[in-house]
From TrEMBL, chain B:
SUPFAM superfamilies (UniProt xref): F-box domain (SSF81383)
Source organism: Brassica napus (Rape)
Domain of life: Eukaryota
Protein's recorded name: F-box domain-containing protein
PANTHER family according to UniProt: BNACNNG10540D PROTEIN, F-BOX PROTEIN CPR30-LIKE
InterPro entries: F-box-assoc_dom_typ1, F-box-assoc_interact_dom, F-box-like_dom_sf, F-box_dom, SCF_F-box_component
SMART domains assigned: FBOX
F-box domain mapped to chain residues: 5-52
Length: 158, 376
């Protein structure tokens, strides 16, 4: 019995052929299994570069998620290691796009992985200057307002 | 790896929230000054309580006259911070600590003080009493179930045979009297108390016909009434867990007792959770009882079916004291983390004060009189 294959088309025209197990990892795409076999399914707000990463993640997660329930913890560890390497090598701009894509496609594991990467990056910043530099956030505080916010966390003990 | 892509400012709020919920309070507290959107989110009540509900419990303890140590029981990481000095006891609720300041043994003539402190927001506020605080007072700390951020302080005054109860609401900043109608006389072991789900619980004792009964006394901050929750059948006078006993005793055995659900009104019963005999001598840090997990009252902190024990240890050879976290479960006691060592004679008494603790962003309401919101 041959596996059903589906074609996903990115916003910039790239085509990705994937099997049912990959499609099912996306809550948004899952229903298309009934309707779209053999036809192209456009994903209008995800570029080819990002969709490529999404597909790569899903393919890697099929191997373990689709496996039997007696899969050992070592394969769980190996998957976690893969996830860590996968997300760490990306720059934050790509992670941003991945968060938006995983959110739209509703792929929980990928969404959590990407959000956690950003969270870890933020937590490692020592102050707001570093966060602003890392995420390219422009402050909308005046100097006085900023000083006032900082004083909020400095109450005396007597 | 820094990206100067400006799109992060355009991240939808629910996604920003999802990311910030994953960051521990220790870091988040520093970042309100990043931009106004972040500040609004970090000040938002819904976000604060969502974050609190996701946070893992830990412990806080006093290490020196104004130094505190916090341990995160999930990562087993230790961190230190500065805090109020000469603290006599503390009650934790939602990341806030109600601190009693002043130590009777050291400075008996000095006035006792009360304050609310959020260590991670660096917010500290003295609570002025309606009449001077005394060493006979019993305090409680909790919140109203109608409005989670309506924190209340209970003061049970017992002076010259007269018993009165007052409640202070942090938001409105004034004391009011509350009816008190218990027919029996009871007292609480001051450091054996805790706040759970907004209500207050004390290990209490009362005398009847030359014998003592031990029980758990509770105060419901929503209904504002006392309730005798259950008796404690397994404590007796010779038990080393009673306060006032010499710290030099050998402790053979640790018993962990668990109640069923005490929040609902069904009859409370106890069962022994486990019984271990560690091969080391430990000195319990106060409080030794009532470190909670969800809706059960347990003798030690319980996390994912294993009980964590936070205790201080003494090294006779080096004459120093340090604290450790052990995990109890399946009949064995395993050490997980050890803190730094202090000279025994420098720290006696101080290192015993500790509490279960969850870091939070819950704010301490500012004093209305002063314009700067600093010391009061």
């Amino acid at each position: 019995m041959t596996k059903e294959m589906f074609t996903l088309k990115s916003s910039d025209g790239f085509l990705f052929v994937v099997d049912e197990a990959v499609v099912h990892q996306s809550v948004t795409l899952s229903p298309m299994v009934q309707d779209c076999a053999g036809r192209e399914y456009p994903i209008n707000n995800v570029t080819g570069k990002i969709l490529n990463l999404v597909v790569e993640y899903c393919k890697n997660h099929v191997v373990v998620d689709g496996g039997d329930s007696s899969s050992s913890s070592s394969s769980g560890d190996a998957l976690k290691k893969w996830d860590d390497e996968f997300i760490t090598q990306m720059d934050l701009s790509t992670v941003y796009d991945l968060i938006m894509a995983a959110n739209y496609l509703i792929i929980k594991g990928l969404f959590d992985l990407a959000c956690q990467r950003v969270a870890d990056e933020i937590a490692a910043c020592k102050d707001h200057e570093e966060i602003r530099a890392t995420l390219g956030i422009v402050s909308d505080y005046t100097a006085e307002e900023e000083a006032e916010v900082l004083k909020e966390n400095e109450w005396a003990f007597d | 790896m820094a990206s100067s892509n400006p799109s992060w400012s355009l991240l939808p709020l629910e996604l920003l929230e999802n990311i910030l919920l994953r960051i521990p309070v220790e870091s988040l507290a520093r970042f309100k000054s990043t931009c106004k959107e972040w500040r609004a989110l970090l000040d938002d009540k819904i976000f604060i309580y969502k974050h609190l509900d996701l946070s893992h419990e830990g412990f806080i303890r006093v290490t020196d006259h104004n130094s505190y140590q916090i341990i995160n029981l999930e990562t087993l990481s230790l961190s230190s911070l500065q805090g109020p000095s000469k603290i006599g006891s503390m009650i934790h609720c939602d990341g806030l600590l109600l601190c009693s300041i002043g130590r009777r043994i050291i400075e008996p003539t000095k006035e006792r003080k009360l304050a609310v402190w959020n260590p991670f927001l660096g917010q500290f506020k003295r609570i002025k009493p309606s009449s001077s605080y005394t060493w006979f007072d019993i305090y409680g700390f909790g919140y109203d179930n109608v409005s989670r951020d309506n924190y209340k302080i209970l003061r049970f005054k017992r002076e010259k045979g007269c018993e009165e109860v007052e409640i202070y609401e942090l938001k409105s900043q004034f004391w009011r009297s509350v009816d008190y109608s218990l027919a029996y006389s009871w007292c609480a072991w001051k450091s054996q108390a805790m706040s759970m789900n907004g209500n207050m619980y004390w290990i209490a004792e009362r005398e009847n016909d030359n014998s003592k009964t031990y029980f758990i006394q509770s105060f419901d901050f929503s209904k504002e009434v006392f309730k005798e929750t259950c008796c404690i059948p397994f404590i007796n006078h010779n038990d080393w867990l009673l306060p006032g006993r010499s710290a030099q005793q050998r402790f053979g055995e640790i018993q962990v007792w668990v109640t069923n659900n005490i929040v609902t009104d069904e009859v409370v019963s106890w069962s022994m959770y486990c019984n271990v005999t560690p091969d080391f001598r430990i000195l319990p840090l106060h409080p030794t009882y009532l470190i909670h997990h969800t809706d059960r009252v347990k003798l030690w902190f319980h996390h994912t079916d294993r009980v964590k024990l936070w205790c201080s240890e003494k090294d006779d050879q080096d004459e120093c004291i340090y604290a450790s976290v052990y995990e109890i479960g399946e009949g064995e006691v395993k050490k997980q983390v050890e803190t730094e060592r202090h000279g025994w004679y420098e720290r006696v008494g101080v290192t015993k004060l500790s509490s279960a603790f969850v870091p939070s962003l819950v704010p301490v309401p500012k004093q209305e009189e002063t314009s700067e919101g600093c010391s009061c």
